[in-house]
Design a protein that fits this description.
The complex is a heterotrimer. By secondary structure, chain B is mainly α. Chain B has helices at 22-32, 34-56, 88-124, 126-141, 144-155, 159-170, 172-185, 189-196, 201-209, 214-238, 249-258, 265-292. In chain C, strand 4 and strand 5 (96-101) form a beta hairpin. Chain C is built from 17 helices and 18 strands. Chain C is an alpha+beta fold. In chain C, 53% of the residues are buried. The chains are: A mainly alpha, B mainly alpha, C alpha+beta. Chains in contact: A-B, A-C, B-C.
Chain lengths: 305, 299, 540
């Protein structure tokens, strides 16, 4: 186990290095730079700006400089918010997204796995139709429709919440609900699909034949294997949900890091793009590792290699 | 669900070895599933309408009537008009072509690349799996917006690029899901049995393992499609994807969402056809899953 | 069904956060009205609060709360009123301006604001290393440009001088009747030298001096808090010389970078003033609560820019044909719908004393078809492919779609339209990799030259490639004309040339649509959208 994790850590480090390198050069080849704006910057000003930020050095030099400071844990200054460092920005905004993400994930898992399990056990009954209907509805109505609809109903007409912002505990409710519902839908569908695979396998039949209660069969035996697809899905999905959702953070103006993933690319904020990419890559790799470990536990026949 | 009979695990053997093709059996079972049949016919109808419909209409998708503006559904404009006075029905039909094509393309990519990649990595495991999965991690991590803009810089604006961009991301999670399932299944007795019978790896993967992971594959495919149809709207934002005055379902829904209070029909109709298509797809998917699942066929 | 489900879920969640939510709470607006706290949206988060490196008009409203120049703007009609300078006088030849600073002007830390502070600030903004974009606002002062471009090292040799702590003398290259207007612009605000030096070199960008706790300004308000991604809070500055007039206790500038979200926040009482209004909502407000909607005039013009280096737009007849085929009235009334006026020329109305040329850009499809035929494309035949590009945005898209359809219908030509990601679009625009592109100009000061100077052949913002020696000559003449009325007549000739040549096809004159709570008082519509907060208060 320890050997497996060490080896994975080293592999991931190499992958992370490749991601950083690819991203560093990709952002530089995209048209427009941090100073491209509606009002054109004169060539003299541009020269001075580039000198100030060290962008006038040869690209390979900048790359080595970046790797050097990265090794010291310094992600550099942001171009868009020039008096803040990328470390500060991520430090300010990641906890917000992570809080929103963790709460939403809780909503998503409880609702999604619950409904998916009911749908699988009561297959082709009205309960299945209701639960599956929820899943399909959730999948086919995008968050940028659900979000504003909920705001209209609960914030504007009922007056229970603010329409947007992240100031009071009550401000958490709507974004968590919308984001949670968005993930609950696919999770419920995957749970149903995964469980249906399992429920007909021999060991389940054996358990049933031995007179185990349906509840026990499901919780003790079926869920372990039936959730495999959900767990595979959850690796990348958790990385996505913890690092914030662009749409949710925009609709509710949550000061999280999710908007920075998209906006930093639009702003050509080179250092912030790299910072967000490193953050996401590290999370994805860690979570995919966690998924592999979890899957080994869920299915003893899978061996970690 | 009551009767329990010890059926063998699903092994899709070659048609020659058995009188009745399993695919034919599946098709017969599918036809008995009313929801699935409904889903299938709805999808076919929507696709046909989108392909043929625009030629039967009186209006062009770009034809404006600025004085009319956004008008509620009427005898002339069955689904109303948008803020530039364009017929919504025509725009929905044209938009459907784009969205359905994108959905289809993404499905094909996810099914071919994602499933094969995941199955190979899961089956062989070891170093090969490590390399293949780290490659997936890297692809997940690269900044998508930048990638898309770069694609356009190097290859110019092009409808093929739209599919490349979508294809590049849509197979990743599929590959991970399939890999997870394959790793779980490859140690099962019937696979060991197939191995001991001396079947080739290719045959074991495609004939014995994949049929047993079809369920999650189908479910995840139906989950991918709405995602890519909306992703197309984001790509339009970046300048890839459909160019105005042409539209797509994703773009129409996005526009409609911003005007839902003033002109609800601009959200309701695109949303309805989008949901109808997705529900049908899910019904069909569930039906297919059931039909292909030999073990549960008698439920 | 989704609503029902959500309502149910929300009810459960509400139980969990019982006291924090769910009852009708006191909104920002209600509490703000009682405590004189203004809640305003600024659109996107500002990049910086340094008045010398700021880049966009949008951030002006924040900057003007924290600082003040030699002059300030009258909130009604923007004529220059005393700021840090209590009066100023001009020599007979218009070349020497003397500003007399008030003795009681103070920085927010209590230091007096002196003429030396201004010298320090102007040397800073003109230092090449600072790379300030508004450097050209000083170019009328003798030697300023040379110093800025590195040809002159000694700042003492420029036309800036401070004979005593309360007198600032500027010597100009040429008369500039609107100099006092410039002196009210944020680029002319002073910065506090000890604070700047404390956090870096004098000419260093982006140091920590603009953070809360470090920041020292000379405006009616002082920086209290800046939470990333959320809001900036400023509090009344008791040391401001005119503090007696300031009635607001605090202003919260909320960053809301989505116009739909902003409107919803306004409706739930989170904002007194929005940054914009969604186009689709304008008609609703006009119908249902016109008292909240304000469509103030704005000193800006929306164009379709032509690349004069590319056929067929290098032919003035083609440009005029495209222009004449546009039904600007329909565009304004049915597409942009914010009370915008169809453009008649390049300089929007609003400059007292300036009359636009008699000949205007107009709508005349017959004449348009005739010109197009004359240019060799009768009925649109053989018209080469022309692409109209714009940066991704709902409104630009709607305008482009409408124009495309007008050209198709009236001229029989197929113009394709293409949206591009913003930076890609601007990069293409600045490098003249476009054929026909959407752009606009919003002026920083109230003078026709703010629009006209962008079409001088050497101007940095001349993206059409327009190079007309006659036009350049006329603008040069205007610089030597000290008499304001005579100068306006000269500028009118320049505008007439642009109307004739149409390197850009003017579409409409901007407005500034905002939503404003009725309690906001002392907020007057004016062409530059400048609203000095010392005149603003809240009252039900």
């Amino acid at each position: 186990m320890l050997r497996f994790i060490t080896s994975r850590f080293l592999q991931s480090l190499l992958a992370l290095f490749l991601v950083v390198t690819a991203t560093f050069f990709m952002v530089r080849f995209v048209p427009g730079g941090p100073f491209t704006a509606e009002k054109a910057v004169t060539p003299e000003i541009l020269r001075n700006l580039e000198a100030h930020y060290g962008l006038n050095k040869p690209l390979w030099r900048q790359y080595l400089d970046y790797l050097g400071s990265l090794a010291r844990g310094d992600l550099g200054p942001s171009f868009k918010y020039p008096n803040r460092t990328v470390n500060e920005i991520l430090g300010d905004k990641l906890p917000v997204s992570a809080e929103l993400g963790a709460e939403s994930l809780a909503v998503a898992l409880i609702l999604g796995i619950g409904l998916g399990t009911i749908a699988a056990i009561k297959r082709n009954t009205w309960m299945d139709y209701v639960a599956s209907g929820f899943g399909m509805t959730g999948i086919s109505i995008p968050t940028f429709v659900v979000g504003p609809l909920l705001v209209l109903a609960l914030a504007i007409h009922a007056g229970w919440f603010n329409a947007s912002g992240w100031y009071t505990p009550a401000d958490r409710v709507l974004p968590c609900l919308v984001l949670g519902l968005a993930y609950a839908a696919p999770i419920s569908r995957l749970t149903r699909g995964g469980l249906l695979e399992i429920l007909h396998q021999d060991f389940i039949r054996t358990a049933r034949a031995k007179g185990a209660s349906e509840f026990r069969v499901v919780t003790r035996h079926a869920l372990r294997g039936g959730l495999l697809p959900v767990v595979s899905f959850l690796g990348p999905a958790t990385a996505g949900i913890l690092t914030g959702s662009f749409v949710i953070e925009t609709i509710f103006q949550v000061p999280g890091v999710g908007r920075e993933f998209v906006n930093s690319a639009f702003n050509r904020d080179y250092t912030l793009v790299l910072g967000t990419v490193i953050l996401y890559a590290a999370l994805i790799m860690a979570l995919n590792l966690a998924v592999d470990v979890a899957q080994a536990w869920m299915n003893p026949k899978v061996r970690l290699e | 669900m009551s009767a329990v009979s010890p059926l063998p695990p699903a092994v899709l053997v070659e048609p020659l070895e058995q009188g009745n093709s399993p695919w034919r059996d599946a098709w017969l079972r599918l036809q008995k599933n009313r929801l699935a049949v409904f889903g299938l016919w709805t999808l076919v109808t929507i696709s046909l309408l989108c392909i043929v419909g625009p030629w039967l209409m009186h209006f062009g998708y770009e034809e404006q009537n600025l004085d009319l503006g956004a008008a509620a559904p009427s005898g002339t404009h069955w689904l109303g008009t948008d803020t530039l006075g364009r017929d919504l029905l025509v725009r929905l039909l044209y938009g459907g072509r784009i969205s359905l094509a994108v959905g289809l393309a993404a499905t094909l990519v996810a099914l071919t690349i994602g499933v094969t990649y995941g199955a190979v990595a899961g089956f062989f495991g070891g170093k090969l799996d490590a390399v293949m999965m780290r490659a997936v991690d890297i692809m997940y991590s690269l900044p998508f917006a930048i990638f898309v803009i770069l694609l356009m810089v190097f290859f110019g604006r092009n409808i093929v690029l739209l599919f490349v961009a979508i294809g590049a991301v849509e197979w990743l999670t599929m590959a991970r899901i399939v890999r997870g399932q394959v790793m779980a299944i490859k140690k099962m007795e019937f696979i060991e049995a197939a191995r001991s019978l001396g079947f080739g790896r290719r045959r074991i993967i495609f004939r014995h393992i994949l049929p047993n992971v079809l369920g999650p594959i189908i479910v995840y495919t139906t989950l991918t499609i709405p995602g890519v149809m909306l992703l197309e709207a984001f790509l339009s934002f970046l300048g890839l994807g459909v160019q105005p005055p042409m539209s797509s379902w994703g773009v129409l829904i996005k526009d409609g969402a911003e005007k839902m209070e003033e002109f609800p029909w601009l959200l309701i109709f695109p949303g309805a056809i989008f949901s109808l298509a997705l529900f049908s797809l899910n019904f069909l998917g569930d039906g297919l899953r059931d039909a292909l699942d030999v073990r549960s066929s008698k439920d | 069904m989704i609503l029902g489900r959500a309502l149910w879920g929300a009810t459960l969640l509400c139980a969990a956060v019982s006291e924090a939510g769910c009852s009708r709470r006191e909104t920002n607006v209600v509490a703000g009205n009682r405590d004189q706290i203004l809640h305003q949206s600024t659109g996107a988060e500002p990049n910086t609060l340094d008045p010398q490196t700021i880049q966009t008009n949008a951030d002006f409203n924040l900057i003007v709360a924290l600082g003040e120049g030699l002059a300030a703007h009258d909130p009604h009609d923007l004529h220059p009123v005393p700021g840090v300078a209590e009066r100023w006088d001009t020599s007979a030849d218009g070349l020497t301006w003397t500003f007399h600073l008030r003795a009681d002007a103070r920085w927010s830390n209590g230091d007096p604001v002196t003429a030396q502070d201004f010298l320090f600030s102007y040397q800073r903004i003109l230092s090449p290393a600072l790379a300030a974009q508004y450097n050209y606002m000083f170019y009328a002062v003798r030697g300023a440009r040379d110093f800025n471009e590195g040809r002159l090292r000694d700042f003492a040799a420029t036309g800036f001088a401070a004979p005593d702590p309360h007198t600032l003398v500027l010597t100009l290259e040429h008369p500039l009747p609107y100099l006092a207007q410039l002196a009210a612009h944020w680029s002319w605000f002073p910065v506090h030298p000890p604070t700047i030096r404390k956090f870096g070199r004098a000419d260093e960008r982006d140091t920590a001096w603009i953070r809360p706790g470090n920041h020292v300004g000379n405006g009616p308000f002082a920086l209290a808090a800046w939470s990333a991604g959320q809001e900036i809070v400023v509090r009344k500055n008791p040391r401001y010389w005119d503090a007696a007039r300031v009635r607001l206790a605090e202003i919260h500038f909320h960053f809301i970078d989505d116009v739909e979200v902003e409107e919803r926040a306004f409706r739930t009482g989170q904002l007194h003033v929005t940054y914009e209004v969604p186009v689709g909502k304008i008609a609703t407000y006009q119908r249902e609560s016109p008292e909240l909607l304000h469509l103030d005039p704005y000193f800006g013009t929306y164009y379709f820019g032509c690349n004069l280096a590319r056929p067929p737009l290098n032919d003035v007849r083609v440009r005029r044909a495209l222009s004449l085929a546009l039904d600007r009235r329909a565009l304004c009334a049915n597409v942009v719908r914010g009370g915008q006026q169809p453009a008649t020329g390049f300089v929007p109305p609003g400059v007292p004393g300036y009359a636009s040329p008699v000949a205007t850009v107009g709508t005349d499809p017959d004449e348009a078809r005739r010109l197009l035929a004359e240019a060799g494309f009768p009925g649109g035949k053989n018209f080469p492919p022309v692409e109209l590009t714009f940066n991704t945005n709902q409104n630009h898209r709607a305008i482009a779609e409408a124009a495309q359809e007008m050209w198709r219908r009236e001229l029989g030509i197929a113009v394709t339209i293409t949206n591009q990601e913003s930076k890609v679009f601007f990069e293409n625009l600045h490098h003249q990799h476009y054929t026909l592109a959407r752009w606009g100009w919003i002026a920083d000061f109230l003078d026709p030259v703010a629009f006209l100077e962008t079409s001088v052949s050497t101007a940095g913002y001349n993206q059409s490639g327009y190079a007309n020696p006659e036009f350049d000559r006329i603008l040069a003449v205007s610089q030597r004309t000290a008499d304001p009325a005579g100068r306006f007549r000269v500028l009118r000739d320049a505008e007439a040339l642009l109307v004739r040549d149409q390197p850009m096809i003017p579409v409409y004159f901007y407005t500034r649509p905002t939503l404003r709570a009725p309690a906001v008082r002392g907020w007057w519509p004016n062409a530059l959208d400048f609203h000095p907060y010392k005149y603003v208060w809240l009252e039900n």
